[in-house]
Structures are given as structure tokens and as C-alpha cells.
From TrEMBL:
Residues 28-47 bind DNA. This is HTH tetR-type domain-containing protein. GO terms for molecular function: DNA-binding transcription factor activity; transcription cis-regulatory region binding. InterPro entries: DNA-bd_HTH_TetR-type_CS, Homeodomain-like_sf, HTH-type_TetR-like_transc_reg, HTH_TetR, Tet_transcr_reg_TetR-rel_C_sf, TetR_SbtR-like_C. Keywords: DNA-binding, Transcription, Transcription regulation. The lineage of its organism: Bacteria, Bacillati, Actinomycetota, Actinomycetes, Mycobacteriales. SUPFAM superfamilies: Homeodomain-like, Tetracyclin repressor-like, C-terminal domain. Residues 6-65 form the HTH tetR-type domain. Pfam families: TetR_C_43 (PF21597), TetR_N (PF00440).
Length: 182
């Protein structure tokens, strides 16, 4: 690929990430082209459809979350799950429109499963260290992330809570419930 074509492609993916993160599935390819400051024809030369562009953006987002989980694995066994969930909260707060369930089958299932496997390992390590209760399951971790997403969405749509980051308080409550010694 020519250098200018590669730069246009990267600019399109970056713009798409920002637009989809903000607007979710309601964003259009014209919105993306405008944000990337390219014409629609340039976008269509690089991506044949909205689905193809969404898949590229979501793969990048979930790979980033996998990298976050890998970094959390470098933390102590007792704190790795906390580090992971807090970082995921930050990512969701900044990019709520990219969360897998709202995109359905366009979400990269292999990466979603890898992320789930990594979060399960973080949970098991924390349980082995005695930091997290033995009855907390991987599904509880997944539901905690879904709950965060719900709180973040509520914050974004309710002007009374704008900028409060209630998701942090909610996550603290969830983690207290997970811990062996809240």
C-alpha cells in the first residue's frame, strides 16, 4: 500500500473509532469520512461497507483491552483484577459506543473470548491469593463490566450526572462485594 493510502486508512480507522465510540451504531460512514477529513469515495476504497470498518475498529478496541488485561497480569495476584476492572471502566467511559453487545455479530468473538479468558485468569489468581471470595465466578466479572457500561450510559444521557463518574463509585461497591475482606 502506498504511504499516503496507508495514512488515509489509519486516519479513517482512528476517526471511525472516535465516531463509533461516541455515537455507537447510529454513526454513519459519512460521519466517519467527515471526521477523517476525507471524501466518502476515499472511505469506500478502503472499506467496502460499514460492517468492515466496524469490525476493524472493534478488533483494535478489543485487542487494546486484551493488552490491558496482560498489563494487569503484571500486578500482584491480589490486585490484578481490580487494576483490570478499573482500566476497563476508564476505557468504557471514553468509548462507550464500542462495547461488544451493541454491535452484535460484528464484535470480534475470538477476541471477546480471549478477553474473557484473561479476566477469568485474573479472577482465579486473586482467589488463590485469598483476595477475592471463592464464590465469585467469571460470569460475575462479566456482569460487573455490563453494570459499569449501564452506569456509564446513564451518566452520558442524564445531564444531572454529567461528569460525576458514578461508574467509579459503582465499581468500588462491586469490588467490595467481591473481596474476602471488604
Amino acid at each position: 500500500m502506498r504511504r499516503d493510502a496507508a495514512m488515509n486508512r489509519a486516519r479513517l480507522v482512528d476517526a471511525a473509532e472516535a465516531v463509533f465510540a461516541e455515537r455507537g451504531p447510529s454513526a454513519t460512514l459519512d460521519d466517519v469520512a467527515k471526521a477523517a477529513q476525507v471524501g466518502p469515495a476515499t472511505l469506500y476504497r478502503r472499506f467496502a461497507s460499514k460492517d468492515a470498518l466496524v469490525q476493524e475498529v472493534l478488533a483494535g478496541f478489543f485487542q487494546h483491552l486484551i493488552d490491558v488485561a496482560a498489563e494487569a497480569e503484571q500486578s500482584s495476584a491480589a490486585t490484578g483484577l481490580d487494576v483490570f476492572l478499573r482500566t476497563v471502566g476508564v476505557e468504557l467511559a471514553g468509548k462507550a459506543g464500542l462495547w461488544a453487545p451493541i454491535w452484535g455479530e460484528l464484535a470480534p468473538s475470538a477476541l471477546v473470548e480471549e478477553l474473557r479468558g484473561r479476566s477469568t485468569r485474573l479472577l482465579r489468581r486473586a482467589q488463590a491469593a485469598g483476595a477475592i471470595r471463592a464464590d465469585v465466578t467469571p460470569d460475575d466479572v462479566t456482569i460487573a463490566v455490563w453494570a459499569l457500561r449501564g452506569v456509564i450510559q446513564s451518566e452520558r444521557t442524564d445531564p444531572a450526572h454529567e461528569g460525576e463518574q458514578l461508574w467509579r463509585r459503582h465499581l468500588d461497591t462491586i469490588l467490595r462485594g467481591f473481596r474476602t475482606h471488604p
